[in-house]
Amino acid sequence: MNELTPRIAEANYAGDYRIWLRFADGVEGEIDLEPELWGEMFEPLKDKALFAQFQLYPERSTIFWPNEADLAPEFLYDKVRQRKRGQSAAE
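The chain above was modelled as a monomer; its predicted structure follows.
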């Protein structure tokens, strides 16, 4: 990871397929990952009990699941920022 890679500081399960994330730079928000749960690695995560078992993976600055699925921290950061922009526009 380089110094430009967003670093997840905190991650909490928010129900269904939602995760609340806070990044080291202060960006935070809740994202819904249900649309991303397709393909060989992510299909098993449609089981909400398995989905809820994610953990922080500090060495890669992201989250991962017991089946070794993970998502790029840049992708998660962009999802949080997109959602924040959408909320601001709606207000």
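The beta strands are 8-13, 18-23, 28-32, 55-57, 62-64.
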